[in-house]
Amino acid sequence: MAVAAISGTAFSQTTVDLGVIGRLDANPYFYFDGTRPDYTSGNSVLYTDLECSFGDNVALTFIGHWLNTDADKIPFKDTPNLYRNTFYSVNNWVDFCYFDFYAGNWTFRLGKDVMAVGGFEYDPYDWECTYDMTSLLWQNLSCYQWGGSVTYTTPSEKSNFMFQALSATNFNDFDVEGNICRWRPWQNGFGTYILNYRGEYGPVETSNSYGWMQTCGGKGNAVSGMEMLTLGARVACTESFKIGLEWQNRRDTAVKLNSFKDFFSQSTRAILTMQYVPSDKFELNLRGGYEYIGMGLEQDLWLDVETSPKCWSGGASFYYFPLKDSHDLRLEATVAGSSLLYTSYTKGITATIGILYNHTFHIVK
User: Fold this and answer.
1) How far apart are CA 300 and CA 64, in angstroms?
2) pLDDT tens sequence across 19-78
3) Alpha carbon of residue 266 to chain centroid
4) Torsional sign, CA 72, 73, 77, 82
5) 191-224 b/e (C-beta count within 10 Å ≥ 16 → b)
6) pLDDT score, position 2
């Protein structure tokens, strides 16, 4: 399909960029329950980001995750089967692999993509994130799935409307005998269906979505899933200061609703962020969050807990970019605290010292 769409003229306009991204973290943990301090290498990773364009109408993105240094740590101790047919091993897998087809104001995407969850937490690439500055949802939701999407951008380019249909293979699916089933993409017949709206109007950005993910049933059984509503807004108060707020409600569709209030009683996530960028060299990010995950949904997210968790978290990250006229090199210092640290699901504080290098090679211009 893609080959047929690329004419000889398009080949003459081909560009190929290869990004090589390396990150190295030192990440100690200190727990409040008397447990001995722990240490991980945080989000130390190696990625490649291949971006190809074939004329003005076709593009390919392939992002490979080739190194994960803490495969035995939560949430990586049980890497999902989704990746086994795309160069999978315990330590490496493929995050993105998709074609974009452009036709006027429309974009058609086919391949492996991230769920359009809504809000802004999923906007940065994984290598840009520090685990302890993310939510339980970010740490546990299997957000990379196979499928496609259709996006319409208004002529003013201020609004984007997307419909996305992806697989839903990494949830805690059970067969008729009660055994956990881990399916390949679309093998179980489950799907994730999301409507997403993003807008940018002057200093205000908004990102909202409604989605439904099948998490059990199918194959002749009754179907249920996780329903998700997300609202997010971010305001640039000045050229150097932004403040953002996002809220998300999730519920198990197998639970009967007896009132409108029941829709909001199962699981919720709220995140407040502030960003201060006084110059091209420095960046400060503050984050505070609250999550409650109701029984039934924590299994869908592979959370290793026995009770419905409530989680408060917060932290601050300081970035320094030492290179002249470039953000290829980033030095980081982060301090964060949580009532459910991702390594142990207990209260504690953590620190991260890290270095991130991201350089793009222009293979074909």
Assistant:
1) 25
2) 999 999 999 999 888 788 888 888 888 999 999 999 999 999 999 988 776 655 544 444
3) 22
4) negative
5) bbbbebebeeeeeebbbbbebbbbbbbbeeeeeb
6) 42
CA–CA dist 166, 143 (Å, integer): 10
* Helix spans in the chain (H): 2-5, 8-12, 136-140, 297-300
Beta strands (DSSP E) in 158-220 are 159-167, 173-174, 180-181, 191-201, 204-218
Cα distances from 168 to residues 112, 114, 119, 209, 218, in angstroms, run: 12, 12, 20, 17, 12
Enter the tokens of residue 358.
């991201």
| Ramachandran quadrant class, 3 (left: phi over 0; alpha: psi -120 to 50; beta: rest) | alpha
| Cα dihedral 211/216/221/227 (nearest 10) | -20
The confidence band for 295, taking pLDDT boundaries of 50, 70 and 90, is low
pLDDT tens across 165-224, in order? 998 765 545 554 555 555 566 666 778 899 999 999 999 999 999 998 876 654 445 566
CA distance 239 to 144: 33
333 close to 355: Cβ distance less than 8 angstroms: no
